[in-house]
Specification:
It is built from 2 helices and 5 strands. By secondary structure, it is of the alpha+beta class. The chain has one domain: Trna Endonuclease, Chain: A, domain 1, CATH 3.40.1350. It has a 5-stranded mixed β-sheet with strand order 1-2-3-4-5. The termini are far apart.
Amino acid sequence: MSLYLTGRALGARFERIAWGYLVAKGFRILARNYHCGRAEIDLIGSDGEMLVFVEVKGRCTDRFGEAVEAVDPRKFARLRHAARHYLHRHRVWGSPCRFDVVTILLIAGVPHITHFQHVFSSD
């Protein structure tokens, strides 16, 4: 695979890496790139009985700070909007849920993954 990927292709690669990582941890992936208006959730899965909304952030360098820093309150508001839409549309409104962030630092083609669980409250 080329070292020079477009933003969209690189984002898709990070999502595939996160997918594999979460499945290896026992997650069941229910949806990928769930859209609701201008909001998108990268991955939606279940971790046992818990419904998990996952934002994936990746970087090829750490020169500009941690990838998790890109998930600011404005981004979270869009994630929460899309999550509420998903809960309503799939009739799972009362399900326990959480928001996770998976960050990937890709160095020389090797992914370094950090999984932040329950990053935001759904309230």
